[in-house]
Amino acid sequence: DPALVKDDALALAKKTLPPDWLEGQAEAALIQVVPYVVGDSDTFAIAVPLKEPITNLGQGVKDMASDPANYTLLFDKVIAPQVKEQFDKNIDLPLGIKMQSQDVVDAAKKIATQKWAAGVVVQVVDQAVPYATGESEHFLIVVPIGDRIDAAGPVLKDMLVKSGAYKALESQDFRDEVKKQLDAFGALPFGLT
Fold first, then answer.
1. What is the pLDDT of residues 71-91, one digit of tens each?
2. What is the Cα gyration radius of the chain?
């Protein structure tokens, strides 16, 4: 819903292209175009320096990422509906394991926290802006997930308990399926059964 981000989008646009920068660019363009229009010149060229707007855009994006309200809006209005739609449409868990899409969304929000997501955005912007302004010939984006693995442990364990996965592992159906898969390999060594 564009109305939800209208104020932030306008603020980002003003930060990216401040009025004084726009005025300066318009004046520079007129200085080039007017002699051409009145016949004093056969050509004209307009060069628009983009380093300042790109740098401003990068800072604006970082500022937006640091605002918890934007994280909540993005998660609740964009990410959660997509996860729910895909989960509800495409996920059929075996052995009677039941998981609700809202549990998956809640878990994702606990694992990919606002603070972590904002840090990733800062890293991406800090790599992309120098590339976009020509200060760097390449950029590399690395998304560190090591600390998210630690954060995911308790969250995923709770999901497994709620889903009935542990009980499913104890079920006869699970044992029968494991036996069927192992039998496909032939006899196990050392008398294992």
1. 998 889 888 999 888 888 777
2. 28
